[in-house]
Amino acid sequence: MTQHLRIRSRAAAALATAALLAATGCASTSAGGDAAGGGGGGGGGTLVIGATGKLPNLDTVIGGAGFEGKRLLSFQIYEGLTRYELLKDTDKPPQVTGALAESWQVAPDKVTWTFALRKGVTFQDGTAFDADAVLFNLHRYLDKASPEYTDALGAAAKEYAGDIASYRKTDDTHVELVTSSPNGHFPEDLAHVLIASPTAVRKSGSANFSQHPVGTGPFAFASQTEGQQVDLVANKDYWRGAPRLERLVVKALPDPAARTAALRSGGANWIEYPNPDDLESLKADGAQVLSNSYDHLWYWILDTTKGPWADVRVRQAANYAIDRQAIADNLLHGTADPAYQAAPRATAAYDQGDDRYAHDPAKARQLLAEAGYPNGFATSVTVPTGGSGNLLPVPITEALQRDLAAVGIKVDIRTTDWTTLIGAEAKGEVALGSDAIAQSTTLFQSEALLPLFIGSKSPFWTGHYANAKVDELIATAAANPDQSARQAAYRTALRQVTEDAPWLFVVNDRNPRALAPSVHGLVQPQSWFLDLTTVSVTK
Amino acid sequence: MTRFLLRRLLLAVPTLLGVSAVVFATVALVPGDPVTAFLGPGAPAEARQALAERIGLDRPLPVRYLDWLGHALTGDLGTSTSTQRPVAALLLPALGQTLTLTAAAFALVLLGGVLLGTLGALRPHGWTRRLSGAAATLAVSAPQYSVALLLTAVLAVHWRLLPAGGTHDAFGPGGTGDLLRHLVLPATAAALVPLGLTAKVHRAALSGVLASDLADGLRARGLGRAAVLRHCAHNASPALLTIGGLQLAYLLEGVVFVETLYAWPGLGRLLYDALTARDLPLVQGGVLLVATAFVGVNLLVDAAHAAIDPRVRS
């Protein structure tokens, strides 16, 4: 069990990295649509997306400091053996389905997985996809002896492929992957292990592959202005049917005013995360504003070993003291939903019946009095100044400060930049030594990450929350290949977390984006990721 | 003249060394480390260790500095930690973009500054003087960020005359005309303050010369207004050169906000992103490049100064 936990937490750590970085405000990637999606092919115009952050290194899993490019670029160029189904059932969290693998099964030993590969798929350079291509990529990620291995690839691949102990092909269309311990959500992890064309990697050389990326995804790389703009064109031979768009251009527009101006002036026809204050006027100008819940939570991590926060009644009191609806409505203009519990709405662990913490200052005062703080107390919180996943961190924290002051909890707000904050967290420290951290996290749907958020084995365990029952539930669930059993266990675990209130639960973001009237066909799933195969632009 | 330039050139060496050492030390002291910024807080210890070793973070600061300096002298500025690309491959295109924007803005500064300054100096009591003075003051004191937003709101968003950002239209084929259109707003925004300052300095210098015995002497010899102005402008040019050189250097490194606001992929933005990602090699290489450009511009200004004013050479 110890071994198991260690390994899982390592892979999870890697994923968590991704999650936190995702929250820094990059765009995310979308897996393709469903087999019925896409289709049509051609004639669908040019989509120019204004992204909020930097664009990533385009070599498969490397990405770099930020996930925005991953949503909009890496997952459009590449696919893994599996992918998220993002076009169907968009009122529920997405399921994992086959991409480069058609089907898979796990042996009774729970660690040997056999994947049946999809036949007839070609990379964008015409290379045929087969078992050798899978092995080539796994060598490139995991085998230091491979001529294509680089440290950057190895480090990045650990996040998602870290627990692959061995791999081999059984024939041209089947590969067998063995995990170092039972991992029930292995197929989901593989959606992030992207497969590149071996021919293209050899041609450009591993180190230069980011300049000439080739995958099997719906869009093929055309050109880039490094870090600023990437041009993709439709992959006409995409196995799910050519995407409707002809071109997909992603531009880095970090300034919110510049994004809004780009949409209004016609320099872009789609912008990610418009400033909530601009939404009404954008709508008035005819823009479509789309949003959907996804697995995001904006919260404070309370240090459960420090002063009054060590008392569960105090933590619950703070959760009753805040007016989340007002923050969601007035500050964020409906781009977020109030979070009354630990599980974000768009996760299988969410249970509406457990929406526990309504705005109830009287109850908060009563709990504080019971805990021995009838006159409240003073505390502090470190807040990052930015990060698009962090929404409007300082204004939200100031609203919370007012609400908490109303029940006697006086909060000292200390601001710092996001890199400093997560740098300290990596060492298990709180930047500026506060009693709490304000931050946001996404990818709660990613089961591999759950232990990081709520388990006591998390590498960024700054809140020191430990509940043996929660640890046990998560560890046992992770090894279980039965998805519904896993989800039931997560629900129980998160219900316990909600009750223990190690965090101040605040809001769930809704991933807003604004589209020009000429953009059609976007399906917005309950996910950080997007399928762009159904999108088209009229001229 | 040659000796003068040689001395200046030699002086540039310790300046650049000093700048690079200070930048190296400062960036190393900033909280947050590149390993975390690249791998994220949850990365496995062994991956962190491997990356730290690969980028040399496990060695003492002075050793890292000397090593970096040695490589920098051969043109190898290392690998960017946040993008895993050679630093030079990132810096050079960005430098090109910044130089394009700077050149456009500087052309506006010189043109506008000389025009406004001359208008102000010609008739010391006329309405042109008041108008040009007001325009220069407005350019210097109007908050750049607000003016830039206002220009965008009116010219790009409302009237759709000009693009709101970027270097070319993502929907179209691009080309020089497209680039020029995209230059108008950012170059104007960047040029405002230096233009105002240049106008003020040039007006003062030209007024001085026009009121001097030299101007009286020229007029007494029967030269026309245009000829007098030409001679006086020549005598006022050292001041213009000095302020122009300063403004050019200011533009080179001062266009960060313009680059951000107009999504211009230049050095300023690259460095800002590099700093937030704690990308030490990129920050160090970028600052060295900017410092070199700064010193280079100063050197050019000194040379030009010496060329037109013999007194400087002695």
Model description:
The complex is a heterodimer of chains A (539) and B (314). Chain A is α+β, with helices and mostly antiparallel strands and 539 residues long. In chain A, the strands form six sheets. Chain A has a seven-stranded mixed sheet with strand order 8-9-10-1-11-19-12, sandwiched between helices. In chain A, a hairpin with a 3-residue loop joins β8 and β9. The longest helix of chain A is centred in the first third of the chain and has 22 residues. Helix content of chain B is 78%, strand content 0%. The termini of chain B are close together. The model of chain B has no long low-confidence stretch (mean pLDDT 85). At the A-B interface, α1, α4, β10, α7 and α13 of A face α2, α3, α5, α7 and α12 of B.
What's the quick description here?
The complex is a heterodimer of chains A (539) and B (314). Chain A has 539 residues and is α+β, with helices and mostly antiparallel strands.
What features would you highlight for this structure?
heterodimer; A: 539 residues; alpha+beta; 7-stranded mixed β-sheet; 4-stranded antiparallel β-sheet; 16 helices; 20% strand; globular; disordered N terminus; B: 314 residues; mainly alpha; 14 helices; Peptide ABC transporter substrate-binding protein (chain A); SBP_5 (chain A); signal (chain A)
What strand line-up does the widest sheet of chain A have?
A: 8-9-10-1-11-19-12
Helical segment count of chain B: 14
* Contiguous runs where pLDDT drops below 50 for at least 5 residues of chain A: 1-41
Strand content of chain A: 15-25%
Greatest interface: A-B, 62 and 48 residues
Residue fraction in strands of chain B: under 5%
* Large-scale geometry of chain A: globular
Helical amount of chain A? 25-40%
Transmembrane segments (chain B): 99-122, 134-159, 179-197, 239-262, 282-301
Domain ABC transmembrane type-1 (chain B): 95-301
Family (chain B): Belongs to the binding-protein-dependent transport system permease family.
Protein name (chain B): Glutathione ABC transporter permease
